[in-house]
């Protein structure tokens, strides 16, 4: 009887004893609470960053830096043939390496009635290509007289008029460099004095040559 009493007393003491509140489980939840907190749910989104269950973004899972990528350059504007009416693009300004007739006197400039710049020089003065390009026309063209037309790419072409008849030194399809002689100053076509009429064509439309020459 005495042994049974002792055993019952020990059981009662064990049931009545509670653990200290400071006893903590590995997840930080006190022992004796109704539920044990689970570790936070972690997901990795498409960018490789960890996203906690509450939507807070943590450090990059992949360890890559978070600097923004460089902005892509804006594309250059393009124009359909024969419809160019916009300004001369910066990429075209001063693109010509030399005047068509170096040292010549400038006569009539580009106006509403005159579609180029006249470079006055003595008959027989060499006319030079103002930039690298491919010759696309050689011959006689109305009031322009004997002429040469060169394609420089990017929609830009140049035309050289009033050459001495038959003095052109190039042929269609020939590649020329800036400064190459392509003909000689004459007075053919509607010219009243020896000179080279110089024009610039952008996508089929004649424009003021001045910006291309840095004038």
Task: Give the count of structural domains.
Answer: 2
Q: Got a strand count?
A: 13
- Low-confidence regions: 13-70, 74-83
Mean pLDDT: 74
Task: Describe the SSE topology.
Elements: H1 2-16, E1 42-44, E2 49-52, E3 57-60, E4 105-106, E5 117-120, E6 126-128, E7 133-140, E8 146-153, E9 156-163, E10 175-176, E11 181-184, E12 195-202, E13 205-207, H2 210-213
Antiparallel strand pairs: 1-2, 2-3, 4-5, 5-12, 6-11, 7-8, 7-10, 8-9, 9-12, 12-13
Short description:
The protein has two helices and 13 strands. It is mostly beta strands and 215 residues long.
Description of the structure:
With 215 residues, this protein is mainly beta. The protein has two domains: 46 residues, no CATH class; 124 residues, Glucose Permease (Domain IIA) (Distorted Sandwich). 9% of the residues lie in helices and 28% in strands. The protein contains two helices and 13 strands. The strands form three sheets. Strands 4, 5, 7, 8, 9, 10, 12 and 13 form an eight-stranded antiparallel sheet that branches. It has a three-stranded antiparallel sheet with strand order 1-2-3, with no helix packed on it. Strand 8 and strand 9 form a beta hairpin. The protein is globular. About 32% of the residues have low confidence.
